[in-house]
Amino acid sequence: MAPVAAAPSQTSLAFLLHLYLLLSPAAVITFHKPKVDPTDASILCNGGANASSDTIKLTNAHYGIEVSRVFYADDIPLWSSATGKLSDFTTRYSFSIDPGSGYPSGVAFFLAP
Questions:
Q1: Which pTM value belongs to this model?
Q2: Which residue, 1, 5, 9, 34, is most buried by CB atoms nearer than 10 A?
Q3: Where is the Legume lectin domain (predicted)?
């Protein structure tokens, strides 16, 4: 009768996964803005948008129709110039739309070269 091979332990699998992740060729790009600094020159407000201590207000409640924009001025590399490969990314935003103003509201996010 042949000996039965034991299944690898969870510790061994975790170690191998950790080793694989350490040795995988990957470039990490971190972009984190938990709060908005009104003096931050990389946040460009256009139209009626303005930055306060921890929020960006896109519209003024006193106007019925208004278009405002906020741009991040610094480049965020989404591809490797050495390999020409695109990067994966994840993004997360928190926003609120006040329905009490009586005017329709909307938000759009975009990436531009």
A1: 0.54
A2: 9
A3: 39-113
